[in-house]
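Fig. S4 source data, part A: sequence.
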Amino acid sequence: MIEQDHISFGPVHLEVTDLSRTSMFGERLFGFVSRTGENDSVEIGAASETLIVLHAGARTPAQQGNSGLHHLAIHTPNERDFARLLKRFSDLRVIRLGCPCPGVLARRSLCK
């Protein structure tokens, strides 16, 4: 039998032009919690787990009408939380959630 390695991943690190504005975007859209990180960074994520670390340093802002974020996968622990997240998107009038599989909305995942 082949022994399988266990791989784990830490938070994603992003350079942004405006730490405050970007952390507020995560709080408002996803309901993330923001915390002050090391070296003037902002950590955002769940109450007990950092998912994204924002660093100042990006030189070019996102284009008008674009978040500048190409892809972000969020896994919810259950269908109730997934429904709450979709309601939040609807309430905030998020116009487009792009998927590599257009038109598909899978249970607990925006794309399968």
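Fig. S4 source data, part B ends here. Confidence is low (pLDDT under 50) at residues 100-112.
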